[in-house]
């Protein structure tokens, strides 16, 4: 018997989840198992998530993407968030994080878990104030852990918990002034609790208690980056790196308990710092899978941050990041709607696929070669079929009809694909 996917891997047991992931990834299942035993691949799969279609995250696997959704005080529409979840799965997102931060969210979380074939993540700190219905100051250590256990019981596959921001790191933040301070919502809540109560971060002080819960339900621990930079000015600073060192230490402790671990990372970061940050994480956290938000490579594009994120995400994943958290055009402005969510997903999927080509993953280029062959044949139906977003491709094609079906309104009869095909087939051109 085994307690977690990592425990099974260490014991040489190949689980059904490993077989499914190996098949999807075109990876030898024994190689997959060995990398899982080392902590370099995780399969987030809570024992209580019965609808899950498992995915792997880590070394040698396709770059995965996560979609954030959830209700807030100012936008409390459970049905809309469930529609978003269904759309995210339709658009092939591998993970959904429920970031609900208002009211009694357990009912929504249960509905989400019952319908989702994608892995589900949460940030229990967001839920603590609403679930416990009391002020932050008066929440006890036991109550924080009760919220974590509730999420685990419900079937959550991975949890973001900011274990690495201890009192020493909090002091580092005070001593090294940032332009944007702490932008992590969960991190800021924990920082506030520590300041108000003059106590150590409970998830750092009682880390083994957290590991008990993760091991019991096989929850993958996504070690959150409370000190992630919220502006390109604050990236790669003392607070960020100190927390990363602590996360590396906590990773080893989790592995000793057979708890799967991912590491979360920046944030906002200039292009020229991304590759070095990916190397730092992999070195300091012993090859654990890296989960990044963006990075957003400039701070001046509200309304277009799905683009700033996709640029950074492609570079990050090409240099070792394994998991991209999507960013929508609504980032920094409001809760995203369905259209925003779709734009964010497509942008992240483009970034992930571009990185997989750069990493030389088996089959990554095949899709692109099929598209290029369809273009060479001037086969528009096939191009639309192969598109990452066939709906949008079809809409654009239909919105501006050419005189001839084997051209488009950009080039018309001057289409180089069409004319080269004719020339090479010995046909005459009518130009």
Characteristic key phrases:
eight-stranded parallel beta barrel, 50% helix, 10 strands, TIM Barrel, 431 residues, two-stranded antiparallel ribbon, alpha/beta, globular, 9% strand
Structure explained in plain terms:
With 431 residues, the protein is of the alpha/beta class. It has 2 domains: 355 residues, TIM Barrel (Alpha-Beta Barrel); 61 residues, no CATH class. The protein has 19 helices and 10 strands. It has an 8-stranded parallel barrel, surrounded by 7 helices. It has a two-stranded antiparallel sheet with strand order 1-2. Helix 14 links the parallel strand 9 and strand 10. The protein is globular and about 80 Å long.
Summarize it.
The chain has 431 residues and is α/β, with parallel strands linked by helices. It has helices at residues 5-10, 16-25, 29-37, 78-90, 106-115, 124-132, 141-154, 167-175, 185-197, 202-205, 207-217, 238-256, 271-284, 305-318, 338-359, 364-376, 380-386, 390-399, 416-424, and strands at residues 41-42, 57-58, 64-69, 95-98, 119-122, 158-161, 220-223, 261-265, 290-293, 323-325. It has two domains: 5-359, Radical SAM ThiC family, central domain (TIM Barrel, Alpha-Beta Barrel), CATH 3.20.20.540; 364-424, no CATH class.
